[in-house]
Design a protein that fits this description.
Strand content: 15-25%
Number of helices: 12
Radius of gyration: 19 Å
Helix content: 40-55%
Shape: globular
Number of strands: 10
Strand order of the largest sheet: 3-2-1-4-5-6-9
Structural class: alpha/beta
Oligomer: single chain
Distance between the termini: 38 Å
Order of helices and strands: EHEHEHEHEHEHEEHEHEHHHH
Length: about 290
């Protein structure tokens, strides 16, 4: 049995879908407050749905019982974030550590953990929590796989962070001249599922990117070609991002500013060796842009 924690999220839901399609038994952990439509969609897939919360250790013990592998994509950011109640410390740090401990107690063999790229590490709450969880996982005795994807196309090339393709407007962090290995969440899901059976993923940290590293300015050019329209581009200087992070008092605000600063400095990932071990096609920015305007 494969337990997916974070199953109602964008990535977790896709992992559940790919597990079921590949014939792997799938158990999805959902919270009592999860979107009923998303929970039903998991049931419709054929996943076994169990209720629990990473802040409730007893529910994690029950969810892990009988599982041979756990895939964790759970995070408080951005949609379920509630300061002091469902936040980086309680979910991304303490909650995932508790999940690892529950997996050890239940005799789980393998835990796949979704972190984020380590090419540039600037200190901010989410980054610090992710790295602490990685260290905890390595020391746990579980067979581990840490996935460190670069920036998700579906998030960072979307209106949510100022990349409004429909209205031909793009907000770029930094000067847009540093390459980033943009990746689709669908491909990260492929890596997560493939890691369960690939011996090269055992006790490994995998830095993940798409098929090519492109600067944000190059990405804008691709979207302009796909839409046939010139984009209005606004640049947010790196020093403004640093000031924003320094002035932020909320951990989520601090973390978003930190992620934007890392974006501004670039995140090019050499995928040559990883692509040999996981030989499947990854979505390109051009393919993604074409889909946006389809």
């Amino acid at each position: 049995m494969n337990l997916v924690v974070g199953a109602t999220g964008m990535l977790g839901g896709e992992i559940c879908r790919q597990l079921v399609v590949s014939g792997k038994p799938t158990r999805a952990l959902v919270r009592s407050t999860s979107d009923p439509g998303k929970v039903q969609a998991l049931r419709d897939l054929g996943a076994e749905v169990v209720e629990g919360d990473v802040r409730d250790r007893a529910s994690l013990d029950a969810a892990c019982a009988g599982a041979t592998a756990v895939i964790s994509t759970v995070s408080s950011m951005p949609f379920s974030y509630q300061p002091g109640e469902n936040d980086v410390e309680q979910v991304d740090l303490n909650g995932v550590k508790a999940l690892i401990d529950a997996a050890v107690g239940a005799g789980v063999e393998h835990l796949v953990y979704t972190s984020f790229s380590g090419q540039i590490d600037l200190g901010f709450p989410l980054r610090n929590a992710k790295r602490a969880v990685e260290r905890h996982l390595k020391k746990s005795g579980l067979t581990y796989t840490v996935l460190r994807p670069s920036y998700y196309m579906e998030v960072w090339l979307s209106p949510a962070v100022g990349f409004d393709a429909a209205n031909a407007k793009a907000q770029i962090y930094g000067m847009g001249e540093e390459p980033v290995s943009w990746i689709s969440f669908q491909d990260v899901a492929k890596f997560a599922v493939a890691s369960l059976d690939n011996p090269l993923a055992r006790n490994a940290i995998l830095e993940l990117g798409g098929p090519e590293a492109l600067t944000p300015n190059q990405v804008v050019g691709i979207f302009e070609s796909a839409s046939g329209k010139p984009f209005e581009v606004q640049y947010v200087p790196a020093d403004a991002l640093a000031a924003q992070q320094q002035g932020a008092t909320d951990p989520m605000q601090q973390s978003f500013s930190g992620l934007m600063r890392c974006y501004a400095q670039g995140d090019a990932i050499d995928m040559a060796e990883t692509a040999k071990a996981f030989p499947f096609e990854r979505m390109s920015v051009e393919q993604y842009a074409t889909g946006v305007f389809a």
